[in-house]
Amino acid sequence: MGRMKFLCDAERCIECNGCATACKSEHEVPWGVNRRRVVTINDGVPGERSISVACMHCADAPCMAVCPTDCFYQTEEGVVLHDKDMCIGCGYCFFACPFGAPQFPNGPAAFGARGKMDKCTFCAGGPEADGSDEEFAKYGRNRLSEGKLPACAEMCATKALLAGDADVISDIYRQRVLRRGKGTDVWGWSTAYGKPQPAVAKANQEGKK
Amino acid sequence: MSIHSLSCGVALLAALVTLPAAAEQAVQAQQQRQQTQPLNNAPVWREVRSEQAGFTSLPAPEAGVLIQSEGMTWRAWRNGPVTLYGGLALLVVAAAIVLFYLRRGPQKLRGPPSGNKVARFTRFERIAHWGTAISFVVLALSGLAMLFGKHVLTPVLGHWLASLLIVLGKNLHNIVGPIFLAFLLVMIWHFARDNIWEACDALWIRKGGGIASGEHVPAGRFNFGEKAWFWIGVTLLGLIATASGLVLDFPNFGQTRALLQTVNLIHGIAALALTALSFTHIYMGTLGVEGALDSMRTGEVDDVWAKEHHELWYNQVKAGKTGQDAQRR
Q1: Who's near B121: CB < 8 A, 6+ residues apart?
Q2: Residues in B touching A111 (Cβ below 8 Å)
Q3: Does A62 contact B26 at a Cβ distance shorter than 8 Å?
Q4: Is the ipTM of this complex over 0.90?
């Protein structure tokens, strides 16, 4: 079983927000919650770059570490999921997450009444039975259990956003870097997964030659 | 209101200091790099970690920030020193009190009570005290559950029951917090007068309150130990904990994550210190000193108790000098 990761290739992202739209549509995400978003750096300046970001399903997930009720769990594939029934809406996961992934249906409400936290599930649902109505109502569709990859990456028109087994997607990315002939960073990976992965580090080195 | 303006002020200050100059530089660096090395995006990647907001079409607070690194620092502090030393502080103070009680037992009256009652706390004072006390206990227990529940409650009760209790605790905490603040302000405003420094406090400090020696040390309405609790515990730590609590409880004034993280640490540290100190006050007011609990329950004390614990106050009451303190209103 592989290790699931997201990889966003900033050289390819065209800021179409197709990923964010696919996600909202696939999971019928509540109003006000955006599990995925696209951010453009240096908007309007030559060399601007856009990046799609959601939960990165970190190896040592900060949300998981600070949750007072320990409602998070990590699947064998490295996907970070949570049990909404145990969520107290304290917002600590939102304080801790570097990527701004945890979202709350009520937003920053008075008396801290944020509601149950919602975030990207890597299209892997929650603790309820795979594909059940309860699971869909709380977490959205469980595509992984159907053998499909996350809807955002599947929908990406330029294949900037890759989702899937870490070895496979970093291999694709390495080939792109070689073809372009210039090195670049895998956005967010050192924050989410610790040290750079050997395959990518090698690709970066080869790219620099 | 003041918290709102304070948090806005802090956010504005941070924005003013970091935004314009740095953003300008980053844009220039990127433009130059595009001409010299077209596919080298190092300036962009540096900017990603700088926490400046990029453009995003989603209208959520801080949605334009790609990586907010301080959350990792907050996590390290909260899960590290705050949990460890906060927990140790509570255990050490509790253990010290238990040891003291086992060695010395409760402080009993030296002579038999006379049966003559002296009014010590008015009805108003008792309502203010118990309102503060009960809301404090609710806040302390629910607060402790949020910090230590995962390590203490969950292994014993299991995930389901523990999380149910913590859900209840979190909601109580957020609602009772402002009520505690209201009582706290009444307490501080009303009792401040009787807690100002008096000449007899110097003697009390020199003799360590007679706690070790068991010697009689004259005191006014409140002795120096009680005054220390009033100023350091109730007033200083109480106000820090409630002010920071308000910033966390009402995040709907545009507080940034960086502010919430910092304030959460201040809140945790102040509240843990206050809780540890409160153990001593609760001990002295219940098991530690015979008659102390009755004074706050009924508002009256035996005149023998008054003479032994607060001799100067007793003399003043006798002389009818402190009408406010001696009579029920």
Answers
A1: B129, B295, B296, B299
A2: 174-175, 249-250
A3: no
A4: no
